[in-house]
User: What shape does this take?
Amino acid sequence: MEMEIIKAIILGIVEGITEWLPISSTGHMILVDEFIKMDVSPEFMEMFLVVIQLGAIMAVVVIYWKRLIPTNRATWIMWLKIIVACLPAAIIGLLFDDVFNALFYNYQTVAIMLILVGVLFIIIENKNKHAIPKVESIDDLTYKQALIIGIFQLVAAIFPGTSRSGATIMGGLMIGVSRTVAAEFTFFLAIPVMFGASLLKLVKFGFHFTSDESLLLINGLIVAFLVSIVAIKFLMSYIKKHDFKVFGWYRIVLGVIVLGYFGVKTFL
Assistant: This one.
């Protein structure tokens, strides 16, 4: 059991880092799963990989607690913008989630989207090198701009490997949103999205856990929470002085690795 707990901790670390950095948690998880397979049922593993995101979400809630509590008109309006941005992925995802998983949840799609979004990050950052952002605060974000960012989130929901944070940040940059606002809005968007996804997985799995399963899930949640706090603070500090191009190059390299590894494995 000790070895399974170590595996859960490693998965929690990977989730905590990759959920917030625009580098695709899915791309990393499929690689990690190749080398670190927990001795659990496929149903529990499917649920585990989604529900440990709750730990990552709680990190956002803790860090941004004062900004998230709707005690004034500006915060209520911000939540309305978040709801608007979540609508595309919520509606399409609920209707076609199983279809999208059947069609696109494979290493080829993950690798292609890793590379494609990485290239787009580099192109967009080069184009915006001397541009002055039009939106420097979430308060200045219009409902139309929120909806556009939500459509980019939908793309990530359809094509694994895109990265939810990567897609929404990229969408924000393309319409003139500053890096800081794009990142923060991405964090806030994740709250209803991940809570909803986790709840659906828990309901589907049922709430009947063995003691070992409970221990694995709790460890994964705690580690994802702690690592997420570090990852979020790192990203917000990093983008004050740097752009996202380094993440673009990282994605390209990871995409090539995923494509090469699974391509060779399939061939052999």
